[in-house]
Amino acid sequence: MSQFRYGLDTLDVSRVMQITSKHLKAVVTAEATMQIDASRAHVNQIIKSSKTVYGINTGFGPLCDTTISPSAIDQLQQNLLLSHAVGVGQPISKTLSELMIICKVQALSQGHSGVRSELITRLLTFLERDLIPVVPEQGSVGASGDLAPLSHLFLPLIGEGEIWIDGHPAAAPDILTAHGISPLRLQAKEGLALINGTQFILAHAILGLDKMKYLLDLADLAGAMSLESYQGSASPFDARLHELRPYRGSIEVASRIRGMLAGSQNLRSHTDCQRVQDPYSIRCMPQVHGASRNAYEHLAMLAEIEMNSVTDNPIVLSGEEAISGGNFHGQPLAMALDYASIAASELGNISDRRCYLLLEGQYGLPRLLTEKGGLNSGMMIPQYTTAALASENKSLCYPASADSIPTSMGQEDHVSMGSISGRKFNQILNNLEKILAIELMYAAQALEFRRPNTFSDIIEENHRIIRSSVKKLEEDRLIKDDIQQMISLVQDRALIVDLN
User: How many Cα neighbours within 13 Å face the side chain of 29?
Assistant: First the structure.
């Protein structure tokens, strides 16, 4: 199995997801271990000196002016995890918890956090043995780190909390005993290094980016299939047009849709029709889908920086120098996540409009995509669902990063709320999956009415994939089942979106 080498390799979305899927084995290099041990030695120097350093020999937050005796320093770190594990709500997915651990190890392995290499080894053991902690979804304000969720994430290190077993939470002490693992006793700085950081926000960004990448491509496919069934024009995708307004996203979408239309006999069949312009939801796909791609690229760039950064506090540099700063503040990701949420919502918004177009009964398509309307409602009602989901997404687009509520008796007087940004981003993407699934169902139905015309190879192949799960609607039936089949195709990434 290929390896990801902490201390040598850099993380990106693809590599993180490969570690979670066990296609990459995460290991710590000898060089990284040396750097980690050196950082730990610096912490030990601080403890032996008379120097006061936040979080090492002081209390936390508003208690930073309280000096802790050397004999109580270790207990301080244990207490930190116990007192800060105050999350509420449903657990996040096991995958998200795993992503948090992977990213936290990358931060700690850079040797500026002052933890023992033994602690990092234990975290890798958790990953290898699939001992993934249970973390509640609510409770982080996204500054001073994702304190509550990270505290829950690392409770099992000290023999507390819960671990996922067979899809259910189980008491960590029982699971650790079954695996012959003894709880660690945290030492100076270690609890603080574990729970200061942005790994909860970052995990949501990574999971969302992985999903959004496919949905961006799928939106182009759905749009191209809708264009074909609507018998729209290909001219708005001319490369020369987009060279005059050269946004990267617009150029890419126009190129992809040209590729998806290439070789279409159906497109040639109406080259000389009298229609002048298509509605914006057809004509402006490069501009709208492209803008969403630009937002995706922005978040992907920032998330990769964050994956490879040190985000705890204080940061140990050398000797007795440890700087207390704000690398834990989630604002850089929070704002980008809110931007990406709008981008994902807009993909659903324009998809819903294309669904509506296909129902209007124009340009040779039957109303409601049924030839037996009246007795049959045909495809009328699924668009109600896309409208509901699009509206719900709009309501989720309020930027969480625009809010701040002071915490910690005013010591933490500006927070990012990035944890909420990350959670909303993924909610929107989950709704977008369903909207695009319904548009694809509509487009497949509408394409039936353009036969015997043929389409491009990629559209024909995707139409075949859809028809292998959902048959043409001839008479009213329980469409809910069809929609669920389409959603499964989207979630399984069964539809072909790559032109290569």
Answer: 14
